[in-house]
Specification:
The complex is a heterodimer.
Chain A (H helix, E strand, L loop, with lengths): L6 H17 L3 H9 L6 H9 L18 H14 L5 H15 L2 H13 L4 E4 L15 E4 L5 E11 L6 E7 L10 E7 L5 E7 L5 E12 L4 E6 L2 H36 L1 E2 L2 E2 L4 H27 L5 H30 L9 H14 L4 H10 L7
Parallel strand pairs in A: 1-4
Antiparallel strand pairs in A: 2-3, 3-7, 4-5, 5-8, 6-7, 9-10
Helix pairs in contact in A: 1-4, 4-7, 5-6, 5-7, 7-8, 7-9, 7-10, 8-9, 9-10, 9-11
Chain B lengths: L6 H17 L2 H9 L5 H14 L17 H13 L7 H14 L2 H13 L4 E4 L15 E5 L2 E8 L10 E7 L10 E7 L5 E6 L8 E12 L3 E2 L5 H11 L7 H15 L14 H29 L11 H22 L28 H7 L10 H12 L3
Parallel strand pairs in B: 1-4
Antiparallel strand pairs in B: 2-3, 3-7, 4-5, 5-8, 6-7
Classes of the chains: A alpha+beta, B alpha+beta.
Chain lengths: 384, 401
């Protein structure tokens, strides 16, 4: 048992920490990028590509680094700490996982090298307005065109990074009832294909998303990811990879927010003394520390379990991870704002940015309540 | 990074587990698992069995019978011990007084005391807390006045756990009343049978009397029973309190209890036709405790791994978190067990002499210890430095307030 990073991993961590801390050193950088056309910096994206960050989880034969969950965790932590806006999560983690885990050789060879090189952005168009957190609840339909291709019809919402992505990984139903795990398929669709309408908007955490309407969208046989009708396991694993990454990002954010809070308590003076001299505030910041440490532990657990071959064990573990992350993120976020007082309420201070992102992370792919319910249904974590 | 145990570590776990399961009597282990009270004899049997194997003082230096296990091996040992319901080696002997004597005692004291401490030939108890000194231990008032070759000890200790079984006591006493707080304290030891020592059991809210008041009335203690230097007893106290770092979260015990709750909840009726595990609210509370427990287990392993690189010998103050979170989870889990029992937890059946209790079990046998265990476990966030003290430590030493 050892928790040490390899030399290579330590180097990656140092590099990505340094680069993101430097690029996002000023809160103004973030607020200005939020208002820019794409909502993020293409220059930064290019730098991430040059550093190899976009290539991390992909196979070497596709231009990837052939690395795993620990490496993407290091990126997630750094991006969470710096509150990076670039669409790493939608492109590399979500859609990237769907391709990596589901696509055939030809598609991987055609698309992944471009993703890894930073010349192609992706989004995972799966969420539907009435599905809430049920991953199988898909009504978008895919009708076979008789030539191996399909015609897509339906609506997706809150597609993260969907406003500016070049291509979309779209889930749709080829058969079965709504919410059935059978009959789902994934397609790689050009975001500007005829019949695709995107309504882009900013999200609460400063990133971007889109609602996507698919109306008679034609996808050729070469656009089908894996086997049509059998995509549910790929969707589930894509989301599990998403949860592992979000756990790391949340830990990066929580850690930074906690440090910011402790620093503030030590410098802010009221009644002639630093407010950090008050025991009630010390104890509340200690409880935040405990929450952060518990979240860190579960982010590491996610790294170990996200590739666990036993699907029941993996599923229960990832539920547990998201429960802890959601609980810790909410606790640390709310306490940080309260302990800062008024300054925590402003968009001119980084604290609020962390809080908003942490809050949204809980709402993505199942909040703490949802995952606790699912974990309970699955019989809990420990064998009885 | 590799969070799996090595093949050697897994083999060690197997060895430890099979020893516990074959050598420690099942009658004793099931008492622990089911939350029934252990007798002195049970604890002595378990301790002596471990001692015969050479494991009772695994944490001591090799010269005095220690095993020189790695932190991971110690962790595995404790986890298996806890999850198999094995009563631990008597802490007052093996993780408190023994290490203090090894660190601060003279050669003569080591030869005299250590073998009997290790074998539990003498049962020791801890005379630290006093009625006026709880978290503020250094405010203690018991005095030891030097008269020739003896100290004359006067005062009172309290919360003295299992003093009713003890042959010896290790005590913090004030030897220099003019010195500032910590500076005038000494660490002395003496038999509980010394004239002038009296004991009064304190009944606790769980019905049992595991703690006592101990009174000293002109107790004559030979000077050679001073451990370490006179007026430097606070060094011994600090050393002792810093020793117990990784067992304290008692992850193994909580894991064992959760498994038991789940097993029982699959057959305890919910009252509406099914079993309690089908009550989503109860089942979710159990699952939530499991998540916290898994996170704590990982946290403990992270701190353990960090410990391997810690050559300073000083405890990592972050381990206060293990006490804090570990005690909270122990309390959550014992609370769940009582909730599981529901109305069956209400009857009071004491297993000790009591004004109102009697010794007959009432109702479901598994449910009888649920409420007493719940009541008893309120102590875990109070003793060993209350959770508020742990927060003070973390605030100061980790967050830098």
């Amino acid at each position: 048992m050892d928790f040490d990073l390899s030399e290579e991993q330590q180097l990656l961590k140092d590099n990505v920490d340094r680069l993101t801390a430097n690029r996002y050193a000023e809160i103004k950088t973030r607020t200005e990028l939020m208002k820019s056309a794409k909502g993020y910096s293409e220059a930064f994206w290019k730098e991430f590509a040059e550093m190899g960050l976009l290539a991390i989880p992909f196979a070497e034969e596709h231009g990837g680094m052939g690395q795993g969950a620990i490496e993407t965790m290091l990126v997630g932590e750094a991006f969470g700490r710096a509150q990076v806006l670039e669409p790493y999560f939608p492109t590399v983690i979500l859609a990237g996982s769907a391709l990596r885990l589901g696509a055939g050789e030809a598609m991987k060879a055609a698309v992944i090298p471009e993703v890894a090189a930073g010349t192609l952005t992706l989004a995972f168009a799966h969420q539907e307005p009435e599905a809430r957190f049920d991953l199988a609840n898909v009504t978008t339909s895919a009708k076979a065109d008789g030539k191996g291709g399909y015609v897509l019809e339906g609506a997706k919402c809150v597609v993260l990074g969907g406003d500016s992505a070049d291509k979309l990984v779209v889930s749709a139903r080829v058969s079965g009832d709504r919410a059935s795990k059978d009959g789902l398929a994934l397609f790689l669709v050009d975001a500007n294909a005829p019949g695709v309408t995107r309504k882009g908007y900013p999200t609460q955490d400063g990133t971007r998303a889109a609602d996507v309407t698919l109306s008679g969208v034609k996808v050729g046989a070469d656009g089908v990811i894996g086997e049509a009708g059998k995509a549910y396991p790929v969707i589930e694993r894509t989301v599990q990879n998403g949860i592992a990454y979000l756990a790391a990002e949340a830990v990066g954010g929580m850690n930074a927010l906690h440090e910011l809070t402790v620093e503030y308590l030590k410098t802010r003076k009221q009644f002639g003394v630093p407010i950090g001299s008050f025991q009630v505030l010390q104890h509340r910041s200690v409880d935040m520390f405990v929450s952060v440490e518990q979240a860190k532990s579960m982010a590491l657990y996610a790294c170990v379990m996200v590739d666990e071959p036993d699907e029941s064990e993996r599923r229960r573990a990832m539920h547990a991870v998201k429960v802890q992350i959601g609980k810790s993120a909410r606790h640390v976020g709310q306490e940080a704002i309260q302990l800062h007082g008024g300054i925590g309420m402003t968009m001119e201070y980084k604290g609020g940015h962390y809080f908003k992102r942490l809050t949204m992370i809980d709402l993505m792919f199942g909040n703490a309540d949802h995952h606790l319910r699912e974990l309970t249904k699955a019989g809990g974590l420990l064998a009885a | 990074m590799d969070l799996r145990f090595s093949p050697e570590e897994n083999a060690f776990r197997q060895e430890v587990r099979s020893f516990f399961q074959t050598e420690i009597p099942l009658s004793i282990r099931s008492k622990s698992i089911e939350g029934r009270r252990l007798t002195k004899e049970d604890m002595v049997t378990a301790h002596k069995t471990l001692h015969k194997k050479g494991w009772a003082v695994y944490n001591w230096p090799k010269d005095w019978g220690g095993c020189e296990w790695t932190p991971v091996q110690q962790y595995i040992f404790l986890e298996e011990m806890q999850s198999n319901g094995v009563p631990p080696p008597l802490a007052f002997n093996t993780s408190m007084n023994g290490p203090v004597i090894i660190q601060f005692g003279t050669d003569a004291q080591k030869k005299k005391f250590l073998p009997r401490i290790a074998a539990l030939d003498d049962w020791w108890c801890q005379g630290f807390s006093e009625p006026g000194s709880g978290s503020d231990l250094a405010s203690l008032k018991t005095t030891a006045v030097r008269q020739g070759d003896h100290y004359i000890v006067n005062g009172q200790k309290t919360w003295t756990t299992l003093a009713q079984y003890a042959d010896w006591i290790f005590c913090l006493v004030r030897t220099d009343p003019s010195a500032k707080k910590q500076l005038g304290i000494s660490y002395i030891v003496f038999p509980m049978t010394t004239p002038g020592v009296t004991r009064r059991p304190i009944q606790l809210i769980d019905g049992g009397s595991e703690v006592n008041e101990v009174f000293f009335d002109d107790v004559k203690v030979p000077v050679e029973n001073l451990i370490g230097e006179e007026n430097r007893g606070w060094d011994c106290a600090k050393f002792l309190l810093g020793n117990e770092r990784f067992g304290i979260a008692r992850v193994g015990i909580s894991k064992m209890r959760v498994a038991r709750i789940k097993e029982l909840a699959r057959r305890v009726p919910s009252g509406s036709g099914g079993v309690l595990m089908e009550d989503p609210q109860f089942a979710e509370k159990v699952a939530a405790a499991e998540v916290e427990l898994k996170a704590l287990e990982m946290t403990q392993m992270r701190f353990l791994a960090a410990e391997r690189g810690n050559k300073s010998g000083k405890p990592n103050p972050a381990t206060s978190m293990l006490k804090l979170k570990g005690s909270e989870i122990q309390q959550t889990v014992t609370e769940l067990l009582m909730e599981l029992a529901g109305p069956l937890a209400i009857p009071y059946a004491n297993d000790e002499d009591d004004m109102i209790g009697h010794n007959e079990p009432i109702g479901a046998e598994w449910a009888a210890p649920a409420a007493p265990t719940y009541f008893n476990y309120r102590k875990v966030s109070i003793y060993g430095g209350s959770n508020e003290i742990q927060r003070n430590i973390l605030a100061k030493a980790v967050l830098g307030f």
